[in-house]
Here is the input.
Amino acid sequence: MSTPTASKSTGGWTLIQSLVCLTAAIGFAFDTYELLMLPLIAPAAIFELTGFKPGSPESLAWIRTLFFVPAIFGAFFGLLGGWLTDRFGRRRVLTGSILLYAIAAFVSGYSTSMNMLLICRCLVFIGVCVEFVAAVAWLAELFDDPIVRERVIGYTQAFASAGGLLVAFVNHYLAHLGAEGHLPTIVMPQWAVGLLGTLENPDPVWRLTLISGLFPAIPLIIVRPFLPESPKWAQKKAAGELKRPSILELFTPALRRATIVSTLLVGCGYGLAFGAIQQIPQIVRGLPEVKEVTKDMSPKEAASHTQKAAASYSQFQEWGGLAGRFLLAFLVLRIVSRRTLLALFVVPAMIILPLFFMAMAKGDNVTLFTIGGVDFTALQIGLFFAGAVVIGQFSFWGNYLPAIFPLHLRGTGESMAANIGGRLIGTSFAALTATLAAQTWIPGPPGPAKIATVAAGVAGGLCLIALILVAFLPEPPPEEQNS
Here is the structure.
């Protein structure tokens, strides 16, 4: 039986190609959905499960743990997943990874301890780390026409920001319903009580946000029987021409520079996201307008309002990220040099991010304009542009990495850059920012303003490093040498 392949023509997609793109888009969307729900739910989850108040040293310590420990597991198991993608095929690994993170996210909503939540987040991270690698490799090998391929990879990755918008909306909506007492009580299933215990006065907002991570498994189960394996991978496998993947081959003279530079640059991009952008929920609670509203509220009411404010700000970040991803998808077909393309995002980030976070630290916020009775402030617009220049870089790597590594190492090479660089090195900057914000030798009292100040410094330093590394980024080889 032959494997369906794409036509050289740019027109007329087959149903199979559409299903693959739909599955990849859903996977990208919920990758971001799963990852970005953590900064939204972490303070409330830690408060319920431990009693540590948001912003306290104990709460910040758990936030560092929830960010960094899953990243370690995700990085190394993700690297293994990339190797498995090259060894056993793209389809099988992709579907397994989506099911893993969807089920783990659902179970995490019933956490009875921080250790249980941490274990579930580790499983979620592993699934997310593997899914990205398998999906990008799959898409890169589905279309023969390079223009169509670049366009498909670029625009399907834009759904990742749609996932970020969705989780911000879901969390904000749940927080609104929770404040009005319209959410159901989360009850531990009877069969699980003996194993996990009961839930004492559970907060339904953060728990339902986590449980909603099950959604991507539903369409996947429906379309799974119709999904083909990667045509190019399957053909080489059937012909006995598929080389065995090896992590060590990434460090041979032909690939060493591409592997090291791309890994470090992906780490810088993720560092900007986790060390700066993802600190927004911690910073928002210190803004003057939020403090003014919550000063006379009970702790539970204040936490609910702060969570809604953080989710509202997150939507501006994700709208900016969506714009950045679409901009990348537009430019990738028009700018030949990949160094130039990446620099178009790194240079603005070097200016925008430090200025934005210093403004957050000072609480400088004014209304710039009003549309339909809704005020748009300087910080909201600043966050939009910050999201655009940072998240747009993520889509760059989805287009660049499949072109730089040969087919038999595509999953392994992508995984080295995305998981070791992004998920391990990059996400560690969340812990770095939280750690520095707790240090007494850095001026200022502990709290949101100090976190913003540290985030400004971290972002500026990472942008400078990234700009230097861009000069050493190799351009992809001719296509015929990379198949």
Remarks:
- Residues 1-11 have pLDDT under 50 and may be disordered.
- The chain is about 70% helix and 0% strand.
